[in-house]
Amino acid sequence: MTIDGEPVERLFLWGHTACTVDDQKKVLVYGGFGGMGRHARRNDCLLLDPLGGALDVVKVENSPPPRLGHTASMVGKHMFVIGGRADPVNILNDVWVLDTVTNIWKQLECGGSAFAPRHRHAAAVVGSKIYIYGGLNNDTVFSSFHVLDTINLKWIEIPCSTDWPGARHSHAMVATESQLFIFGGCGTDKVLGELFSFDVRTHSHESSIESETGISHSFVLLERDFAKVGKDLLKKHGWLDLTRKAYSREDGKHICFPVTNKFCSLLHAEKSLEKTAPLSSDPLPTLCKLGATIIMNDAGEFRKPSHPPAKIMREAVASLLKRQDMAEDLLEELPARWERLGDIVVLPESSFKNKMWDSLGNELWSTVAKSLGARRLARQGRVASTGTRDSTLEILVGENGWVEHRENGIVYSFDATKCMFSWGNLSEKLRMAGMNCRDEVVVDLFAGIGYFVLPFLVRANAKLVYACEWNLNAIEALRRNLEANSVADRCIVLEGDNRLTAPKGVANRVNLGLLPTSELSWETAVRALRSDGGVLHVHANVKDSEENDWVMYLKERIGDLAKSEGHGWDISVDHVDRVKWYAPHIRHLVADVRCTKKHG
């Protein structure tokens, strides 16, 4: 299906819901996590025509807070949204209704039985009633059965007998006439496979066992060198089965990661296509390139239930505030998410900014670090507004900011308080690593700590790389990384402005990895190429609506620069790689510009 109207990336979601509207001719998608630009929880309403492919954003009034893991149920022309998760610690039990005729949301005040906050529950509609079973709230898995009467807006809890299905979340429930069917899901310590039926008129029920598990018995096998990269991709796209443990094969050279059935189907379909196109930002070709292999019929070992780190931190900080007789309102400022750089947990820049936190001194930071299991703790700062884009990360617990990161069998080390690390360029680094540069000289005009220099040397086997960089802190890290990866003898580091230091007439390939644009160094790149030409890898941030215009401008501009240098080259753009969304409607692109000497 070809999606028209809104960008298809709006549908890159998980934890969302979908209901049919307009006499089941269209699909109304609500909420979830992902979408365009920076992935986040959403409260958008998207209307998809599955036959024509039209995708539109529904303009609504009084939208509920963003969420995922909720349920959405159609009763007549009204969509009822129940519960969900607003952030890692804020689980909801609110009820909202959208009038799909007027497109106005309204929060409902419901009475009757208590309905505890939850997400990953299941809902089904019979008549004017919405039936809810199970769900999850931190480490509590529910086995309760509730009914919401949408006419009188009262909850009723149906008493459960001992032979009813146990506590579960992430299961499925559907209704047909007066029958409800519940299947699969996750229990407190295992995945489930019972098929359970319930008659809403007689309250009679039956159950049968169809399989040992409702989720997956499969693992994906990856070489140890690619394990970190592969795991990150699986986790990012929701394909990693977090209920089971990964394990190392006896040979010590391979790691097996538990995956969902959906991933197995997608990977099988991807491999059956036998794609030969260059590696792109699509994770499936990337995983194929890494040699991902499915192992079937291996249930593995299930994880024990654990407390969410955010909850542990909240409890630890709450205890500290209580001991110091400080206001509990400060707990609302705790971060809901953070990042990890090696063994450093990096808190968002906005964390703990209230001056009242200062009175706790180092005790606060040691408490937070211990609760998150961190040896070192830091707080992110704004990127310095200098040409060298220095990091302003602040170390809160620990002696220094040097970290080590392994990716694609390559070791990157850097001082996180002084250097930025680019996480979003993984697919492009893998693509460069897959090039055959055995007899090539490469010039990297923006080397940094070796983001692309190292893949060219370690994986693509470049004969020689000239690494241009003017940030002294990055140069220190780059030299360390060249030594750590045993490739220092094939790299010449050139300190200073590349427009002054870059070599001329030597390169088979030039990399220009600067955002938002590297245009000020395009002339330098052309001069660096050999007289018979070569390839330029040009990075830029480009509006999605202007991609074709940018490619044409790039081609013409490189052609003009080549002529001014006396080169009679044919200029072509062989490939444009869409690395990632940098911001809404702005893509990080890499264009492969081939410059070929004309014959005759």
From TrEMBL:
Keyword vocabulary terms for this entry: Methyltransferase, S-adenosyl-L-methionine, Transferase, tRNA processing
Any one GO CC term of the record: cytoplasm
Matches recorded under SUPFAM superfamilies: Kelch motif, S-adenosyl-L-methionine-dependent methyltransferases
Top-rank EC class of the record's enzyme: transferase
Transferase listed as a keyword: yes
Catalytically driven reaction(s): 4-demethylwyosine(37) in tRNA(Phe) + S-adenosyl-L-methionine = 4-demethyl-7-[(3S)-3-amino-3-carboxypropyl]wyosine(37) in tRNA(Phe) + S-methyl-5'-thioadenosine + H(+)
The organism's place on the tree of life at top rank: Eukaryota
This enzyme's EC code(s): 2.5.1.114
An example Gene Ontology molecular-function term: tRNA methyltransferase activity
Pathway(s) this gene product operates in, as recorded in its UniProt entry: tRNA modification; wybutosine-tRNA(Phe) biosynthesis
GO biological process, alphabetically ordered: tRNA methylation; wybutosine biosynthetic process
Name of one Pfam family that matches: TRM5-TYW2_MTfase
Domain called SAM-dependent methyltransferase TRM5/TYW2-type: residue spans: 338-597
Protein name: tRNA(Phe) (4-demethylwyosine(37)-C(7)) aminocarboxypropyltransferase
Lineage: Eukaryota, Viridiplantae, Streptophyta, Embryophyta, Tracheophyta
